[in-house]
């Protein structure tokens, strides 16, 4: 018996970084190994909401991202890995659900406001597709009747909109018949955010990431630049590893990474830092060694998949087929409930 069905995905931005791994991939693998029914989607249509003008690297980015998913431990025999645009039912359900939500409701989505701010967009010229991408997300989830959606805190409002649309559809179209849609539950990740090496939000566009494909030398180089307590000027000065927003960056990134990748030693390292026994340079060197060892299995699995690119494409094609079968069955129910499907005209 499966524990439930997970639907989660990512926009194809190429190779994955530590934030992707900690915030999503690691959790996906845990669900897979714990007996959940997993579906994981390459959200290429979602990529177009902000990246429609240049799709020259889209297919290469899809391939790279799927390889990283497989390297992280997703097993295509136990998890369905598919590309959103290969399942046209996403677009159909998006269109039908868009009739059930107002423009004002979509404009209240917090992450939409953040994107407008971060990308310096003009609210008066934001595209129809960008405004409605949360409805497309709802269609992604409802199409597969997911019971749970693993997300970070910033994505919770999207799942709530999904629940609203499920209720609205069932109320309008399923009063005298079994309900079509489940209301999925939010499942927050255990370690939802990992900061970049500069102490800010981790993003490839900020140049503050550690990629899953980085070599040991590259990892060491990046960790040397990691943000630490600016008030610890000398090796013997007491440090403050805990979060402290007074300087605008939060606490020591090195200790945050220790907490994630080196939990057995993290508290001891923090205590030695506070007492002035531990200097930043040797601490960073030790962290680089820990992280290199932690990421070694991922690099090895990635090389094996890259040695056989046709096998990666087969994984995607098989995942597309399996996803399409579920989506087709759901849309048959949707059309029937809405009166859009009949055996013959006039019936």
Please describe what this structure looks like.
The protein is mostly helical and 347 residues long. The chain folds into two domains: 5-194 and 309-338, Rossmann fold (3-Layer(aba) Sandwich), CATH 3.40.50.620; 214-305, Tyrosyl-Transfer RNA Synthetase, CATH 1.10.240.10. Helices cover 53% and strands 7% of the residues. The chain is built from 14 helices and five strands. The strands form two sheets. Strands 1-2-3 form a three-stranded parallel beta sheet. α1 (18-33) links the parallel β1 and β2. α3 (58-72) packs across α13 and α4 packs parallel to α14. The chain is globular, with a radius of gyration of 23 Å.
Topology, please?
Elements: E1 5-10, H1 18-33, E2 37-42, H2 44-51, H3 58-72, E3 79-83, H4 89-98, H5 103-107, H6 110-118, H7 128-131, H8 133-143, E4 148-151, H9 156-173, E5 185-188, H10 216-224, H11 253-261, H12 263-275, H13 280-306, H14 309-338
Parallel strand pairs: 1-2, 2-3, 4-5
Helix pairs in contact: 3-13, 4-8, 4-14, 8-9, 10-13, 11-12, 11-13
Gross morphology is globular
Rg, alpha carbons: 23 Å
CATH homologous superfamily title of the largest domain: HUPs
Q: Which consecutive residue ranges, at least 5 long each, have pLDDT under 50? A: none
Helix percent band? 40-55%
Number of helices: 14
If you consult CATH, what is the topology of the largest domain?
Answer: Rossmann fold
**Oligomerization state:** single chain
Distance between the termini: 39 Å
Largest sheet: 3 strands, parallel
Share of β-strand residues: 5-15%
Compute the number of structural domains: 2
In the CATH hierarchy, the architecture of the largest domain is 3-Layer(aba) Sandwich
Structural class, please? Answer: mainly alpha
């Amino acid at each position: 018996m499966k524990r439930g069905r997970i639907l989660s995905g990512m926009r194809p931005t190429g190779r994955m970084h530590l934030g992707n791994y900690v915030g999503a991939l690691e959790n996906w693998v845990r669900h897979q190994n714990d007996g959940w029914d997993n579906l994981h989607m390459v959200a290429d249509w979602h990529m177009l909401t902000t990246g429609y003008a240049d799709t020259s690297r889209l297919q290469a980015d899809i391939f790279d991202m799927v390889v990283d998913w497989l390297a992280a431990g997703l097993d295509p025999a136990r998890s369905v890995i598919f590309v959103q645009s290969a399942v046209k039912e996403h677009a159909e359900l998006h269109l039908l659900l868009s009739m059930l939500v107002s423009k004002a409701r979509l404009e209240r989505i917090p992450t939409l406001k953040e994107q407008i701010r971060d990308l310096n967009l003009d609210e008066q010229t934001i595209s129809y597709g960008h405004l409605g991408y949360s409805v497309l997300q709802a269609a992604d989830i409802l199409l597969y009747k997911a019971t749970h959606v693993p997300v970070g805190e910033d994505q919770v409002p999207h799942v709530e909109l999904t629940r609203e649309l499920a209720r609205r559809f069932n109320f309008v179209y399923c009063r005298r018949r079994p309900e079509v849609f489940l209301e999925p539950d939010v499942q927050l990740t255990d370690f939802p955010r990992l900061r970049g090496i500069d102490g800010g939000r981790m993003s490839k566009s900020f140049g503050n990431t550690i990629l899953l494909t980085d070599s040991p030398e590259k990892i060491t180089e990046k960790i040397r630049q990691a943000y630490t307590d600016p008030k610890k000027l000398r090796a013997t000065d007491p440090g403050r590893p805990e979060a402290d927003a007074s300087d605008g960056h939060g606490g020591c990134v090195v200790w945050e990474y220790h907490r994630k990748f080196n939990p057995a030693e993290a508290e001891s390292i923090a205590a030695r830092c506070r007492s002035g026994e531990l200097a930043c340079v040797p601490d960073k060197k030790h962290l680089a060694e820990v992280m290199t060892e932690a990421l070694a299995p991922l690099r090895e699995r990635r090389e094996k998949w890259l040695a056989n690119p046709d096998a990666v494409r087969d994984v995607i094609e098989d995942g597309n087929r399996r996803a399409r079968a579920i989506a087709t069955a759901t849309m048959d129910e949707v059309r029937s409930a809405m009166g859009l499907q009949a055996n013959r005209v006039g019936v």
